[in-house]
Amino acid sequence: MARRIVIANQKGGVGKTTTAVNLAASLAVMEKNVLIVDCDPQGNASSGLGFYPGDKRENIYSVLFSPKDARKAIYDTGIPFMHILPGTQDLVGAEIELVDKFGREFYIKELLEEVDAEYDFIIIDCPPSLGLLTVNALCAATELLVPLQCEYYALEGIAQLLMTYELVRKRLNPDLDVLGVVLTMYDSRNRLSWQVKNEVRKAFPQHLFEVIIPRNVRLSEAPSFGKPVINYDVKSRGAEAYLALAQEVVRSHTAGKENK
Ligand code: ADP
Ligand code: MG
């Protein structure tokens, strides 16, 4: 069974997609078979890997209501060990179409069940909301990873995210655990980053990743080349940080789930 990690935070711009793409690519470097799933209608994870909006190929939306076809929408990324199930703006429609479907929270789960056995990790990128697509992603996953940007309102909204997590776990997906919180865009010269780190450490003593992702311009440049940072500048601090995060994920306490 794959470890299915959902990257969620209803705030935009906190580093979800950057974390999804670069964690996935770093796990692939470790020769883990990885599938990255783009559940965001903005399709940033897809374009960051060279799948552009307007691309008329099969995508997560086109197979969402026919899970047996999941494989039709899965592509090679050109990176060894890494596949993608891309998302497009058509997903905006999915959020609406799902509303009156029976079992509407489980469509992405069903889709991924078709291919689960082929991967060690499935990394799911979410839109910046707690709507039905994010709930679907939470229901499809076994572990939740929350990126938090080191800024003044970092913890704002986290209570709501955790409440959604608790509800999903209680009512819909008892297999979902918190993998951890990862601090992103950390700037060691900035006192605020340091304060946020301490505050988050107090709030999540058990769940804060040791690895902290620094603010690094290479991380923001790489998507425009359609590449994860390790395929763009392997020596950058951003690449190093995500490789270290992947190692921490692999040895994380929930690793036993791989064999569940
Ligand atoms: P989200 O998916 O949560 O909306 P993104 O991953 O798209 O957030 O990040 C928002 C913006 O910040 C993007 O332009 C991205 O390239 C940039 N970014 C993300 N993480 C970093 C980082 N560690 N250093 C520098 N820029 C970053
Ligand atoms: Mg995003």
Question: How would you portray this structure in words?
Answer:
This protein is α/β, with parallel strands linked by helices and 260 residues long. It has a single domain (3-251), classed as Rossmann fold, CATH 3.40.50.300. 35% of the residues lie in helices and 14% in strands. It has ten helices and seven strands. It has a seven-stranded mixed beta sheet, with helices on both faces. A hairpin with a 5-residue loop joins strand 3 and strand 4. Bound molecules: adenosine-5'-diphosphate and magnesium ion (MG). InterPro entries: AAA_dom (IPR025669), DNA_Partitioning_ATPase (IPR050678), P-loop_NTPase (IPR027417). This is ParA family protein. It holds the Pfam family AAA_31.
Using brief descriptors, characterize the structure shown.
260 residues; alpha/beta; Rossmann fold; binds adenosine-5'-diphosphate; binds magnesium ion
Strand and helix map with partners:
Blueprint: E1 3-7, H1 16-29, E2 34-38, H2 44-47, H3 60-63, E3 75-76, E4 82-85, H4 91-98, H5 107-113, E5 121-125, H6 132-140, E6 143-149, H7 158-171, E7 177-184, H8 191-203, H9 217-221, H10 237-250
Parallel strand pairs: 1-5, 1-6, 2-4, 2-5, 6-7
Antiparallel strand pairs: 3-4
Helix pairs in contact: 1-10, 5-6
